[in-house]
Amino acid sequence: MNQNNPSIAIICGGGPAPGINTVLSTLAKLFIKEGYRVLGIHHAYKGLFSTDPQIVNFNFELADSIFNRGGSVLYMDRFKPKNEDFNTDFFVKHKVKLLVTIGGDDTASTAVRVSEYLKEQNIDVATIHVPKTIDNDLPLPDRNPTFGFHSAKDQGVKLGNIIAEDARTTQSWYVLSAMGRTAGHLAFGIAASCHFPMMIIPEMFDKTKPTFERIIDLVISSIVKRKIENIHYGVVIISEGVFHIIDNDEIKSLGINFSYDAHGHPELGNVSKSEVFNSLLQKRLVSLGLEIKSRPTDIGYELRCCRPIGFDLTLCTLLASGVVRLFKDGKSGCIVTANSNGDITPLYLNDIQDETGKVVPRLVNINSDFARLCFENLDYLKLNDSEKAVEYLPNPEKYVLNNILNWN
After folding, report:
1. pTM
2. For this structure, is 247 an active site residue?
3. Which fold, 152-305+378-405?
4. Candidates 77, 105, 135, 217; catalytic one
Protein backbone atom coordinates (compact mmCIF):
# COMPACT_ATOMS: atom_id res chain seq x y z
CA MET A 1 0.00 0.00 0.00
CA ASN A 2 1.30 3.44 -0.97
CA GLN A 3 2.39 5.32 2.17
CA ASN A 4 1.00 8.51 0.64
CA ASN A 5 -2.51 7.09 0.73
CA PRO A 6 -4.88 8.42 3.41
CA SER A 7 -5.42 6.17 6.41
CA ILE A 8 -8.01 4.91 8.85
CA ALA A 9 -6.90 4.71 12.50
CA ILE A 10 -8.44 2.24 14.97
CA ILE A 11 -8.10 1.96 18.75
CA CYS A 12 -9.68 -0.42 21.29
CA GLY A 13 -10.43 0.96 24.75
CA GLY A 14 -11.60 -0.63 27.98
CA GLY A 15 -11.63 -4.39 28.43
CA PRO A 16 -11.86 -7.22 25.88
CA ALA A 17 -15.12 -8.52 24.44
CA PRO A 18 -15.72 -11.34 21.95
CA GLY A 19 -16.01 -9.90 18.45
CA ILE A 20 -13.38 -7.15 18.57
CA ASN A 21 -11.23 -8.98 16.04
CA THR A 22 -14.28 -9.45 13.82
CA VAL A 23 -14.78 -5.68 13.78
CA LEU A 24 -11.08 -5.09 13.09
CA SER A 25 -11.03 -7.70 10.33
CA THR A 26 -14.10 -6.33 8.57
CA LEU A 27 -12.96 -2.71 8.83
CA ALA A 28 -9.54 -3.59 7.42
CA LYS A 29 -10.87 -5.63 4.51
CA LEU A 30 -13.41 -3.01 3.47
CA PHE A 31 -11.21 0.07 3.82
CA ILE A 32 -8.25 -1.59 2.09
CA LYS A 33 -10.56 -2.17 -0.87
CA GLU A 34 -11.33 1.54 -0.82
CA GLY A 35 -7.63 2.39 -1.08
CA TYR A 36 -7.00 3.39 2.55
CA ARG A 37 -4.19 2.30 4.79
CA VAL A 38 -5.66 0.74 7.93
CA LEU A 39 -3.61 1.44 11.05
CA GLY A 40 -4.32 -0.10 14.44
CA ILE A 41 -2.78 1.58 17.48
CA HIS A 42 -1.83 -0.46 20.54
CA HIS A 43 -2.83 0.76 24.02
CA ALA A 44 -5.80 2.84 22.83
CA TYR A 45 -5.64 6.57 23.65
CA LYS A 46 -2.33 6.18 25.49
CA GLY A 47 -0.75 4.91 22.28
CA LEU A 48 -2.57 7.33 20.00
CA PHE A 49 -1.17 10.38 21.79
CA SER A 50 2.26 9.00 22.68
CA THR A 51 5.49 10.19 21.05
CA ASP A 52 6.24 6.66 19.83
CA PRO A 53 2.95 4.82 19.08
CA GLN A 54 3.01 1.10 18.39
CA ILE A 55 1.22 0.57 15.10
CA VAL A 56 -0.27 -2.47 13.37
CA ASN A 57 -0.42 -2.07 9.59
CA PHE A 58 -3.33 -4.23 8.52
CA ASN A 59 -3.26 -6.14 5.25
CA PHE A 60 -5.76 -8.62 3.91
CA GLU A 61 -3.86 -11.67 5.15
CA LEU A 62 -3.75 -10.41 8.75
CA ALA A 63 -7.38 -9.28 8.64
CA ASP A 64 -8.56 -12.60 7.25
CA SER A 65 -6.68 -14.60 9.89
CA ILE A 66 -8.32 -12.92 12.89
CA PHE A 67 -12.01 -12.45 12.06
CA ASN A 68 -13.23 -15.33 14.27
CA ARG A 69 -10.60 -15.13 17.01
CA GLY A 70 -11.27 -14.09 20.59
CA GLY A 71 -9.42 -11.27 22.29
CA SER A 72 -7.95 -8.37 20.32
CA VAL A 73 -4.83 -8.09 18.18
CA LEU A 74 -4.72 -4.47 19.34
CA TYR A 75 -3.59 -4.17 22.95
CA MET A 76 -6.25 -2.51 25.05
CA ASP A 77 -5.98 0.16 27.72
CA ARG A 78 -8.28 2.17 30.02
CA PHE A 79 -6.13 5.32 29.91
CA LYS A 80 -8.30 8.44 29.94
CA PRO A 81 -6.38 11.36 28.41
CA LYS A 82 -6.62 14.87 29.80
CA ASN A 83 -7.03 17.77 27.41
CA GLU A 84 -3.33 18.58 27.72
CA ASP A 85 -2.49 15.04 26.51
CA PHE A 86 -4.07 15.69 23.11
CA ASN A 87 -1.91 16.38 20.06
CA THR A 88 -2.34 16.15 16.30
CA ASP A 89 0.94 14.36 15.52
CA PHE A 90 -0.44 10.95 14.57
CA PHE A 91 -3.34 12.33 12.55
CA VAL A 92 -1.15 14.68 10.50
CA LYS A 93 1.75 12.27 9.97
CA HIS A 94 -0.43 9.42 8.75
CA LYS A 95 -3.05 11.48 6.87
CA VAL A 96 -5.84 10.04 9.02
CA LYS A 97 -9.33 10.62 7.63
CA LEU A 98 -11.28 8.52 10.15
CA LEU A 99 -10.68 7.50 13.77
CA VAL A 100 -12.66 4.39 14.71
CA THR A 101 -12.93 3.80 18.45
CA ILE A 102 -14.08 0.45 19.79
CA GLY A 103 -15.21 0.39 23.41
CA GLY A 104 -17.83 1.33 25.95
CA ASP A 105 -19.30 4.65 27.03
CA ASP A 106 -16.03 5.93 28.51
CA THR A 107 -14.16 5.33 25.26
CA ALA A 108 -17.03 6.95 23.33
CA SER A 109 -17.08 10.02 25.60
CA THR A 110 -13.35 10.53 25.09
CA ALA A 111 -13.82 10.15 21.33
CA VAL A 112 -16.21 13.11 21.40
CA ARG A 113 -13.59 15.20 23.19
CA VAL A 114 -10.96 14.16 20.64
CA SER A 115 -13.31 15.10 17.80
CA GLU A 116 -13.90 18.56 19.28
CA TYR A 117 -10.16 19.06 19.78
CA LEU A 118 -9.35 18.15 16.18
CA LYS A 119 -11.97 20.60 14.92
CA GLU A 120 -10.39 23.35 17.00
CA GLN A 121 -7.05 22.49 15.38
CA ASN A 122 -8.60 22.57 11.88
CA ILE A 123 -7.81 18.89 11.39
CA ASP A 124 -10.48 17.20 9.27
CA VAL A 125 -10.86 13.75 10.86
CA ALA A 126 -14.20 11.95 11.25
CA THR A 127 -14.81 9.88 14.38
CA ILE A 128 -17.14 6.88 14.62
CA HIS A 129 -17.54 4.67 17.67
CA VAL A 130 -18.37 0.93 17.70
CA PRO A 131 -20.16 0.04 21.00
CA LYS A 132 -18.68 -2.89 22.86
CA THR A 133 -19.27 -4.43 26.29
CA ILE A 134 -20.14 -7.83 27.66
CA ASP A 135 -22.22 -5.99 30.29
CA ASN A 136 -24.88 -5.15 27.64
CA ASP A 137 -25.60 -1.90 29.47
CA LEU A 138 -25.32 0.66 26.67
CA PRO A 139 -28.76 2.11 25.79
CA LEU A 140 -28.80 1.13 22.13
CA PRO A 141 -31.96 1.59 20.03
CA ASP A 142 -34.50 -1.22 19.95
CA ARG A 143 -32.77 -2.64 23.07
CA ASN A 144 -30.33 -4.34 20.73
CA PRO A 145 -27.45 -6.10 22.50
CA THR A 146 -23.92 -4.74 22.59
CA PHE A 147 -21.52 -6.94 20.70
CA GLY A 148 -19.74 -9.50 22.84
CA PHE A 149 -22.61 -9.96 25.28
CA HIS A 150 -24.14 -13.07 23.75
CA SER A 151 -20.77 -14.78 23.28
CA ALA A 152 -19.79 -14.03 26.87
CA LYS A 153 -23.15 -15.25 28.10
CA ASP A 154 -22.80 -18.44 26.05
CA GLN A 155 -19.42 -19.13 27.63
CA GLY A 156 -20.83 -18.28 31.05
CA VAL A 157 -23.66 -20.76 30.54
CA LYS A 158 -21.18 -23.50 29.67
CA LEU A 159 -19.22 -22.80 32.86
CA GLY A 160 -22.40 -22.36 34.89
CA ASN A 161 -23.74 -25.75 33.82
CA ILE A 162 -20.47 -27.41 34.84
CA ILE A 163 -20.58 -25.70 38.23
CA ALA A 164 -24.22 -26.73 38.70
CA GLU A 165 -23.32 -30.33 37.91
CA ASP A 166 -20.52 -30.21 40.47
CA ALA A 167 -22.97 -28.84 43.05
CA ARG A 168 -25.39 -31.69 42.35
CA THR A 169 -22.66 -34.34 42.36
CA THR A 170 -21.15 -33.15 45.66
CA GLN A 171 -24.48 -32.15 47.22
CA SER A 172 -23.19 -28.68 48.00
CA TRP A 173 -23.83 -25.04 47.15
CA TYR A 174 -21.87 -22.60 45.02
CA VAL A 175 -21.84 -18.84 45.42
CA LEU A 176 -21.07 -17.57 41.95
CA SER A 177 -20.23 -13.95 41.12
CA ALA A 178 -20.55 -12.68 37.55
CA MET A 179 -19.26 -9.56 35.82
CA GLY A 180 -21.52 -6.58 35.34
CA ARG A 181 -20.46 -3.08 36.37
CA THR A 182 -23.91 -1.56 36.93
CA ALA A 183 -26.41 -3.87 35.26
CA GLY A 184 -27.26 -7.52 35.81
CA HIS A 185 -27.74 -8.66 32.21
CA LEU A 186 -24.93 -11.23 32.26
CA ALA A 187 -25.88 -12.77 35.61
CA PHE A 188 -29.55 -12.76 34.62
CA GLY A 189 -28.87 -14.46 31.28
CA ILE A 190 -26.63 -17.13 32.81
CA ALA A 191 -29.03 -17.85 35.68
CA ALA A 192 -32.07 -18.13 33.42
CA SER A 193 -30.25 -20.42 30.98
CA CYS A 194 -28.76 -22.66 33.70
CA HIS A 195 -31.94 -22.89 35.80
CA PHE A 196 -30.12 -21.65 38.89
CA PRO A 197 -32.37 -21.54 41.98
CA MET A 198 -31.40 -17.95 42.83
CA MET A 199 -30.05 -14.90 41.02
CA ILE A 200 -29.28 -11.57 42.65
CA ILE A 201 -28.90 -8.54 40.40
CA PRO A 202 -28.87 -4.79 41.16
CA GLU A 203 -32.22 -4.22 39.46
CA MET A 204 -34.02 -6.39 42.05
CA PHE A 205 -33.50 -3.66 44.65
CA ASP A 206 -35.91 -1.23 43.03
CA LYS A 207 -38.08 -0.88 46.13
CA THR A 208 -35.62 -1.32 48.97
CA LYS A 209 -32.09 -0.40 49.94
CA PRO A 210 -29.49 -3.00 48.92
CA THR A 211 -27.39 -4.31 51.80
CA PHE A 212 -25.14 -7.30 52.34
CA GLU A 213 -27.64 -8.55 54.91
CA ARG A 214 -30.48 -8.59 52.38
CA ILE A 215 -28.28 -10.30 49.79
CA ILE A 216 -27.40 -13.07 52.24
CA ASP A 217 -31.08 -13.30 53.24
CA LEU A 218 -31.89 -14.07 49.59
CA VAL A 219 -29.21 -16.77 49.43
CA ILE A 220 -30.50 -18.44 52.61
CA SER A 221 -34.07 -18.16 51.35
CA SER A 222 -33.12 -20.33 48.38
CA ILE A 223 -31.06 -22.80 50.43
CA VAL A 224 -33.84 -23.38 52.98
CA LYS A 225 -36.54 -23.57 50.30
CA ARG A 226 -34.66 -26.39 48.63
CA LYS A 227 -33.88 -28.01 51.97
CA ILE A 228 -37.61 -28.17 52.68
CA GLU A 229 -38.03 -29.93 49.34
CA ASN A 230 -35.18 -32.36 50.23
CA ILE A 231 -32.84 -30.81 47.65
CA HIS A 232 -29.41 -30.21 49.15
CA TYR A 233 -27.48 -28.45 46.39
CA GLY A 234 -27.66 -25.43 44.13
CA VAL A 235 -25.95 -22.40 42.62
CA VAL A 236 -26.62 -18.79 43.55
CA ILE A 237 -25.33 -16.21 41.08
CA ILE A 238 -24.74 -12.62 42.21
CA SER A 239 -23.95 -9.78 39.83
CA GLU A 240 -20.88 -7.83 40.90
CA GLY A 241 -22.91 -4.72 40.11
CA VAL A 242 -24.49 -4.89 43.56
CA PHE A 243 -21.20 -3.47 44.86
CA HIS A 244 -21.99 -0.26 42.97
CA ILE A 245 -25.31 0.27 44.74
CA ILE A 246 -24.32 -0.69 48.30
CA ASP A 247 -23.26 2.20 50.52
CA ASN A 248 -19.52 2.78 50.53
CA ASP A 249 -19.45 2.78 54.33
CA GLU A 250 -20.89 -0.74 54.39
CA ILE A 251 -18.32 -1.91 51.84
CA LYS A 252 -15.52 -0.29 53.85
CA SER A 253 -16.75 -2.06 56.97
CA LEU A 254 -15.72 -5.33 55.31
CA GLY A 255 -12.12 -4.12 55.18
CA ILE A 256 -11.93 -4.23 51.37
CA ASN A 257 -9.70 -1.56 49.83
CA PHE A 258 -10.65 -1.18 46.19
CA SER A 259 -8.31 0.44 43.70
CA TYR A 260 -9.92 2.65 41.06
CA ASP A 261 -9.37 2.92 37.30
CA ALA A 262 -8.81 6.13 35.31
CA HIS A 263 -12.56 6.65 34.98
CA GLY A 264 -13.19 6.45 38.73
CA HIS A 265 -14.70 2.97 38.71
CA PRO A 266 -13.69 0.54 41.49
CA GLU A 267 -11.57 -2.22 39.99
CA LEU A 268 -13.80 -5.09 41.04
CA GLY A 269 -11.58 -7.59 39.25
CA ASN A 270 -8.92 -7.13 41.93
CA VAL A 271 -11.21 -8.60 44.60
CA SER A 272 -13.01 -11.95 44.65
CA LYS A 273 -16.64 -10.95 45.15
CA SER A 274 -17.75 -14.55 45.56
CA GLU A 275 -15.35 -15.01 48.47
CA VAL A 276 -16.82 -11.95 50.16
CA PHE A 277 -20.37 -13.25 49.76
CA ASN A 278 -19.47 -16.81 50.70
CA SER A 279 -17.69 -15.66 53.85
CA LEU A 280 -20.75 -13.64 54.90
CA LEU A 281 -22.99 -16.60 54.08
CA GLN A 282 -20.97 -19.04 56.16
CA LYS A 283 -21.00 -16.70 59.15
CA ARG A 284 -24.79 -16.46 58.94
CA LEU A 285 -25.22 -20.22 58.50
CA VAL A 286 -23.12 -20.86 61.59
CA SER A 287 -25.22 -18.39 63.59
CA LEU A 288 -28.36 -20.24 62.44
CA GLY A 289 -26.90 -23.64 63.27
CA LEU A 290 -27.09 -24.83 59.66
CA GLU A 291 -24.31 -27.05 58.31
CA ILE A 292 -24.24 -26.25 54.60
CA LYS A 293 -21.21 -26.65 52.35
CA SER A 294 -20.71 -23.70 50.02
CA ARG A 295 -17.90 -22.73 47.69
CA PRO A 296 -17.06 -19.37 46.07
CA THR A 297 -16.44 -19.02 42.34
CA ASP A 298 -16.03 -15.93 40.14
CA ILE A 299 -16.89 -15.78 36.45
CA GLY A 300 -15.62 -12.80 34.54
CA TYR A 301 -12.24 -12.77 32.86
CA GLU A 302 -12.93 -16.29 31.58
CA LEU A 303 -15.62 -14.77 29.32
CA ARG A 304 -14.01 -11.71 27.79
CA CYS A 305 -11.64 -13.32 25.31
CA CYS A 306 -13.62 -16.37 24.21
CA ARG A 307 -14.30 -16.91 20.53
CA PRO A 308 -17.37 -15.04 19.29
CA ILE A 309 -20.40 -17.16 18.54
CA GLY A 310 -22.30 -16.85 15.26
CA PHE A 311 -24.56 -14.09 16.58
CA ASP A 312 -21.64 -11.79 17.35
CA LEU A 313 -19.76 -12.71 14.18
CA THR A 314 -22.77 -11.47 12.23
CA LEU A 315 -23.41 -8.42 14.42
CA CYS A 316 -19.76 -7.29 14.41
CA THR A 317 -19.52 -7.70 10.63
CA LEU A 318 -22.68 -5.62 10.26
CA LEU A 319 -21.49 -2.87 12.61
CA ALA A 320 -18.08 -2.61 10.93
CA SER A 321 -19.76 -2.46 7.52
CA GLY A 322 -22.00 0.24 9.00
CA VAL A 323 -18.93 2.29 9.92
CA VAL A 324 -17.96 2.36 6.24
CA ARG A 325 -21.50 3.38 5.28
CA LEU A 326 -21.65 6.20 7.83
CA PHE A 327 -18.19 7.45 6.85
CA LYS A 328 -19.17 7.60 3.18
CA ASP A 329 -22.34 9.45 4.19
CA GLY A 330 -20.24 12.09 5.93
CA LYS A 331 -21.28 11.17 9.48
CA SER A 332 -18.97 11.88 12.40
CA GLY A 333 -19.01 12.09 16.18
CA CYS A 334 -21.49 9.24 16.36
CA ILE A 335 -21.98 5.64 17.46
CA VAL A 336 -22.80 3.05 14.81
CA THR A 337 -25.92 1.03 15.64
CA ALA A 338 -28.08 -1.57 13.96
CA ASN A 339 -31.75 -2.20 14.76
CA SER A 340 -33.55 -5.55 14.75
CA ASN A 341 -34.10 -5.23 11.00
CA GLY A 342 -30.39 -4.79 10.41
CA ASP A 343 -30.71 -1.11 9.45
CA ILE A 344 -27.66 1.03 10.21
CA THR A 345 -28.25 4.32 12.00
CA PRO A 346 -25.96 6.84 13.72
CA LEU A 347 -26.51 7.44 17.43
CA TYR A 348 -25.10 10.62 18.93
CA LEU A 349 -23.74 10.60 22.44
CA ASN A 350 -25.75 13.63 23.57
CA ASP A 351 -28.90 11.65 22.75
CA ILE A 352 -28.13 9.11 25.48
CA GLN A 353 -26.38 11.29 28.07
CA ASP A 354 -28.02 12.73 31.16
CA GLU A 355 -27.69 16.35 32.30
CA THR A 356 -24.29 15.58 33.87
CA GLY A 357 -22.89 14.14 30.64
CA LYS A 358 -22.99 10.54 31.84
CA VAL A 359 -24.40 7.77 29.68
CA VAL A 360 -27.37 6.30 31.52
CA PRO A 361 -26.84 2.51 31.65
CA ARG A 362 -29.46 0.17 30.26
CA LEU A 363 -30.70 -2.05 33.07
CA VAL A 364 -32.54 -5.36 33.14
CA ASN A 365 -36.24 -4.60 32.85
CA ILE A 366 -37.42 -6.55 35.87
CA ASN A 367 -41.04 -5.64 35.17
CA SER A 368 -41.03 -7.39 31.81
CA ASP A 369 -42.89 -10.65 31.40
CA PHE A 370 -39.62 -12.45 30.73
CA ALA A 371 -38.02 -11.24 33.95
CA ARG A 372 -41.11 -11.91 36.05
CA LEU A 373 -41.45 -15.43 34.68
CA CYS A 374 -37.78 -16.08 35.40
CA PHE A 375 -38.16 -14.86 38.98
CA GLU A 376 -41.20 -17.09 39.43
CA ASN A 377 -39.06 -20.09 38.46
CA LEU A 378 -36.47 -19.40 41.18
CA ASP A 379 -36.49 -21.31 44.46
CA TYR A 380 -37.18 -19.07 47.46
CA LEU A 381 -39.33 -18.96 50.56
CA LYS A 382 -42.90 -17.73 50.38
CA LEU A 383 -45.23 -16.94 53.26
CA ASN A 384 -46.91 -20.34 53.03
CA ASP A 385 -43.50 -22.00 53.62
CA SER A 386 -43.15 -20.53 57.10
CA GLU A 387 -44.54 -23.56 58.94
CA LYS A 388 -41.93 -25.88 57.39
CA ALA A 389 -39.11 -23.33 57.36
CA VAL A 390 -39.37 -22.72 61.11
CA GLU A 391 -37.50 -26.02 61.58
CA TYR A 392 -34.41 -24.28 60.18
CA LEU A 393 -35.04 -20.58 60.79
CA PRO A 394 -36.22 -18.88 63.98
CA ASN A 395 -37.93 -16.15 61.96
CA PRO A 396 -38.72 -17.52 58.48
CA GLU A 397 -40.75 -14.45 57.47
CA LYS A 398 -37.49 -12.49 57.37
CA TYR A 399 -36.31 -14.75 54.53
CA VAL A 400 -39.42 -14.53 52.35
CA LEU A 401 -38.28 -13.03 49.05
CA ASN A 402 -41.13 -10.53 48.76
CA ASN A 403 -40.42 -9.31 52.29
CA ILE A 404 -36.68 -8.95 51.62
CA LEU A 405 -37.21 -6.93 48.45
CA ASN A 406 -40.41 -5.18 49.57
CA TRP A 407 -42.19 -6.53 46.49
CA ASN A 408 -45.49 -6.93 48.32
Report:
1. 0.92
2. no
3. Rossmann fold (3.40.50)
4. 135
